[in-house]
Design a protein that fits this description.
Distance between the termini: 83 Å
Bound molecules: 3-methyl-2-oxobutanoic acid
Number of strands: 8
Largest sheet: 8 strands, parallel, barrel
Shape: elongated
Order of helices and strands: HEHEHHEHEHEHHEHEEHH
Length: 284
């Protein structure tokens, strides 16, 4: 099977080709240049500058406080670390819902002022006119259905979607309408595996799942979750690929100990002046 050359830039047609060829798409979040460079060099296909930054970077309980200017800033930072992956900016709460004009202006700024090539919008039927307006002027849109964290207060909590047939039918219909409106891809969040499979099989565009089972065309995780950086929050859908919290804690404790005992910095980290200064002994 042909594999993507790691030097080739990931584009929307390439994602579509990956779906046709049944090659899975790997998406992760990043919010700064250092992490973005690691993910890019490791070969991730899509880097999402998620509004999850509200939770994992800013320390809020949910994504609602994130502002558009903050997303723009983090997307600019991510862009400096990336050569190959596609960068997608998550549009924060109230940065595109107010009016079509607001959505066009803000999403346009993402493409003009950052290296992102697409935006992600949460929402169902109500965002169809916005998706049409954006894609109509050449702004690629990734949709996001199932659990929509920006509606957390209206939903009353983080619950699975598509658990029964009426819910599954509604999700499938929404997915089809968003594809028809011009979305190039859809995130399915907290959707039962069977419903996610039916949606994936009935769309031409790739689906990217999070807590949506194994049948989506791709998967996404929040980088802080998959690296075990937030031990108080272990979510069922997350696999911790590297448990970094204890490793970082140990490193910091060792550093503190060495600073306190004077063993850091040692000769290896010290620069001397040439020739050595002869310090005149003061006479007593
Ligand atoms: O904000 C985010 O990181 C997301 C992903 C979890 C899909 O929306």
């Amino acid at each position: 099977m042909e594999t993507l050359m790691l030097s080739e830039k990931v584009t929307i047609p390439k994602l579509r080709k990956m779906k046709v060829e049944r090659r899975k798409i790997a998406m992760l979040t990043a919010y700064d240049a250092t992490f973005a460079q690691i993910l890019d060099q490791a070969g991730v296909d899509i880097i999402l500058v998620g509004d999850s930054l509200g939770r994992v970077v800013q320390g809020h309980d949910n994504t609602l406080p994130v502002t558009f200017e903050q997303s723009l800033y983090h997307t600019q930072s991510v862009g400096r670390g990336v050569k190959r992956a596609m960068i997608v900016t998550d549009m924060p709460f109230m940065s595109y819902q107010v009016s079509g004009e607001q959505a066009l202006l803000n999403c346009g700024r993402v493409l003009k002022e950052t290296l992102a090539i697409a935006v992600k919008l949460e929402g169902g039927m109500e965002i169809v006119p916005t998706v049409k307006a954006l894609t109509g002027v050449g702004i690629p849109v990734m949709g996001h259905i199932g659990l929509q964290p920006q509606s957390i207060h209206a939903l009353g909590g983080y619950k699975m979607k598509g658990k029964n047939l009426p819910e599954a039918r509604e999700l499938l219909e929404t997915a089809r309408v968003l594809e028809e409106a011009g979305c190039f891809s859809l995130v399915l969040e907290c959707v039962t595996a069977e419903t996610a499979q039916e949606i994936t099989e009935s769309l031409q565009i790739p689906t990217i799942g999070i807590a949506a089972g194994p049948h989506c065309d791709g998967q996404v995780l929040v980088i802080h979750d998959m690296l075990g950086l937030i031990p108080d929050l272990r979510l069922r859908h997350v696999k911790v690929y590297a448990d970094l919290h204890p490793i970082i804690t140990n490193a910091v404790q060792e550093y503190i100990h060495e600073v306190q005992t004077g063993s850091f910095p040692s000769e290896a980290q010290t620069t001397h002046r040439e020739p050595p200064l002869k310090i005149a002994r003061s006479k007593r």
